[in-house]
Structure prediction request, 76 residues.
Amino acid sequence: MTIFEKIIARQIPAKIIWEDEEAIAFHDVNPQAPVHVLIVPKRVVSRLTDAKDDDRALLGKLLLVARDMAKKLELS
Prediction:
C-alpha cells in the first residue's frame, strides 16, 4: 500500500483540504514551498506513462482541482 493509499484510508494523518469520490487534496508534510498541496487520485495510477485512455477524465479533473485549490488558497 502506498503512502497516498494510507492517507486516503485514514491510516496516516494528513491535513486534507478537499476530497470527493475520485480524488483528494492535502498539504504536504514536508513542504518545499510556503504552500505545498498534493492532489492525488484515489484510483492508483503509478506513473503517468501507465495511465490508460480511461484515465483521461480523471487526470483532467486533477488539473481543475489544482486550479480550484489555487483559488481557495488565494495563490496567483
